[in-house]
Design brief:
The complex is a heterodimer. Chain A is mostly helical. Chain A is built from 14 helices and no strands. Chain B is an alpha/beta fold. Helix content of chain B is about 25%, strand content about 25%. Chain B has a seven-stranded mixed β-sheet with strand order 4-5-6-7-9-8-10, with helices on one face. In chain B, strand 11 and strand 12 (about 260-270) form a beta hairpin. The chains are: A mainly alpha, B alpha/beta. The interface of A and B includes residues 105, 158, 269 and 339 of A.
């Protein structure tokens, strides 16, 4: 039981558990499900998720510190380029599909195509590569897409009213965070209790998605370097009392469960153009964009990582394709409750198909744990001859 | 009294059909001089021959039943939507009706460009959602593609302010439908139905499913799906306990007449056959 619980926490399995419950509930008692989901949506998507995104942001910031996975910053150049290429590829395919199908009302849903489920990416990375630079590469590729998606939805907020001067509250929140940082306050609570509400209210009134509200104050939290292939409940310095990961490791799991419950409940017959657009964007656009961007970068002289070859990269490209939870969130931020949201949500959930594709590619190309250890010759093709 | 009217209408249709009258001649609408008469079309804008056939049929009926407006239930234009498309997919097929002064009031479907709300013959006044009044009838036109908080707040306010005896809402996506391809949009229903019930909406028209269906009253509200004035999904009606009547074998449109507390309706196929007819009696508010 303890092992199962640990596994659930390590791989954020409460999120898919909430999702499965939601899908069954929505398709057996739709009215009841949607009434509950819509009642919970504000608490989960606008408040709870602020902590979830802050948690992820803290991990990413720590990975850029000395000793972290992305330190020095030069190591991050190629994955960032790959992530940008994947995002451009996904958005291009989405827009093309929408135009081809003559459903331009879906055009504003392009941020959904940016979403990459970092938790699923991490799980796939661990399954295929176990550990090492390939996982950090994969995580950064996914994060780039999510950052673009989050930036895009910040102006898509479905707020009924926008108050002038709300930006002042966000600035005040940042000022408080700076003051706390300069006072060497290590506990996260003062940041969250003083600056947090101001930032949240500021975002809400400014028409910025409140789930993004803690991001401006996260950089001021106390932190210590970590590798992005951890991304798991607190260990070592991250488990210290008052440290953000320590404080929110379990609440974030709860948020993940309710996020799945509230957002993943789709009617299985709800597929339509938006479904196929999101699916094509994630499963074809992003992998192709990643590969094209890396090819372009490496041939232009960007140094490829030492331990990653083309076969690894193909697997990484597919492993970065599922949008699932992040695409669900982006969809709920872009479209109000209704048919467009339903069909894009079905597409977001269907992008989970990227996971078996990545595993199949790894097996076929003999990458990571599928490497043929009996082979005497290396099967890996370097990204650039003479450099790898 | 209401039951009697329905029985008489049904008997008339049956008797006339058996006596050799062409179905086109059958009208269950009272065609009173002072009543509000309107047609309803959905998913019409293909620009193909079937759309023209339905439009011709509407024009024939208009000669005997002079409706002065048409409510459009979305997907008013499929495919490209350049100036020439507005001619081919709207102005040309409905030219006789437009020339006769019939006004069209459109709602937006998933295939419509949002910018079509500025196309003058759609009479949307540059708004995705809007309301207008004809006699004792308040029409509320919604954009079901994008039912954001702002639109919901507007709807609640418009319904609260409506003093007319009849309240009719129409929009593209049906919140009740037995269409096999799409069916009921439950997420929309959870948002809209409480408002409809609270403020006494009487009748709701939608399209999206390319069939005709009349549903049994849901919480006192009558629902029609009329999404086959251009497109058709033959055999797509999956009848359920909520189905009152339906037709999925050919294109169709609806004629409606409101006289006092009665709304008479007639669904007509592309060939002019009456596929459903009846009357809805509005219970007077205390």
């Amino acid at each position: 039981m303890t092992r199962a619980w640990t596994l659930a926490l390590e791989y954020y399995l409460l999120l898919p558990l909430g999702g499965v419950i939601a899908v069954i509930w929505a398709n057996t008692a739709g009215d009841g499900y949607f009434r509950v989901a819509q009642a919970l949506a504000f608490a989960v998507n606008d408040i709870g998720l602020a902590f979830g995104l802050a948690y992820v942001a803290q991990e990413v910031i720590e990975a850029t510190l000395p000793g972290g996975a992305f330190h020095p910053w030069r190591r991050a150049i190629l994955p960032v380029i790959a992530g940008a290429g994947g995002t451009i590829g996904a958005v291009a395919v989405y827009i093309t599909y929408i135009h081809t199908a003559d459903e331009l009302v879906l055009r504003q849903g392009w941020p959904i195509a940016c979403g990459a489920d970092i938790f699923l990416c991490l799980a796939l990375g661990r399954i295929v590569f176990r550990r090492g630079v390939a996982i950090s590469f994969l995580m950064l590729v996914a994060i780039v897409g999510d950052v673009v998606g989050l930036a895009a939805i910040s102006r898509h907020r479905l707020a009924a009213t926008v108050h002038p001067g709300a930006g002042g509250l966000i600035i005040a929140a940042i000022a408080i965070s700076i003051a706390l940082r300069q006072s060497r306050v290590r506990s996260t609570w003062p940041y969250l209790s003083l600056a947090g509400p101001l930032a949240w209210l500021g975002c809400y009134w400014a028409g910025v998605h409140p789930a993004l509200s803690l991001l401006p104050i996260v950089p001021f939290f106390s932190r210590s370097a970590r590798s992005l292939d951890e991304f798991a409940p607190s260990r070592g310095a991250h488990g210290a009392a008052g440290h953000f990961e320590s404080t929110f490791a379990y609440p974030v799991q709860g948020v993940a469960f309710f996020f799945g419950l509230v957002n993943a409940g789709v009617l299985l017959h709800g597929f339509d153009t938006g479904t196929w657009a999101v699916l094509a964007a994630s499963l074809a656009g992003r992998p192709l964009g990643i590969l094209a961007a890396v090819l372009l970068a490496v041939t232009s002289g960007v140094a490829p990582p030492r331990d990653i070859g083309w076969r690894d990269l193909i697997v990484i490209a597919f492993a970065a394709s599922p949008g699932v939870a992040f695409s669900l969130f982006l969809a709920s931020a872009v479209f109000p409750d209704g048919p467009l949201l339903v069909e894009t949500r079905v597409g977001a959930i269907a992008t989970i198909a990227g996971a078996p594709l990545a595993l199949a590619a790894a097996r076929l190309l003999r990458v990571g744990r599928f490497v043929d250890r009996r082979a005497t010759q290396p099967v890996q093709t370097p990204l650039m001859d003479g450099r790898a | 009294m209401r039951l009697l009217r329905l029985i008489v209408a049904a008997l008339a249709v049956t008797a006339l059909a058996r006596s050799g009258f062409h179905a086109q001649e059958l009208s269950t609408l009272p065609n009173r001089p002072d009543s509000l008469k309107f047609a309803a079309i959905g998913d019409n804008g293909t620009g193909d021959q079937p759309e023209y056939d339905v439009a011709n049929q509407m024009e024939r009926w208009h000669r005997r039943f002079p409706f002065d407006m048409v409510i459009m239930l979305g997907d008013n234009l499929y495919g490209s939507q350049r100036a020439a498309d507005f001619v081919q997919k709207f102005e040309r097929p409905y030219m006789p009706l437009l020339a006769a002064g019939v006004k069209f009031y459109a709602s937006l479907g998933n295939h419509d460009k949002t910018s079509n709300d500025t196309y003058q013959p759609f009479n949307m006044g540059g708004e995705r959602y809007y309301t207008y009044t004809r006699g004792n009838v308040r029409f509320l036109v919604l954009d079901s593609n994008y039912l954001d908080p702002r639109q919901l707040a507007w709807l609640e306010s418009a319904l609260r302010d409506a003093r007319e005896a009849w309240k009719i809402a129409y929009f593209h996506h049906p919140i009740y439908s037995d269409g096999g391809r799409h069916g009921s949009e439950i997420e929309l229903r959870v948002k809209l139905e409480p408002l409809f019930v609270k403020f006494g909406v009487n009748v709701v028209y939608s399209g999206h499913d390319h069939i005709y269906e009349r549903l049994k009253p849901q919480k006192g509200i009558y629902y029609f799906v009329s999404g086959a004035a251009g497109e058709l999904r033959k055999g797509d009606l999956k009848r359920s306990i909520n189905t009152a009547a339906g037709f999925d074998q050919d294109r169709s449109f609806m004629l409606n007449e409101i006289a006092g507390d009665d709304l008479f309706f007639q669904a007509i196929s592309r060939t002019g056959e009456t596929v459903d007819a009846g009357v809805i009696h509005r219970e007077s508010q205390p």
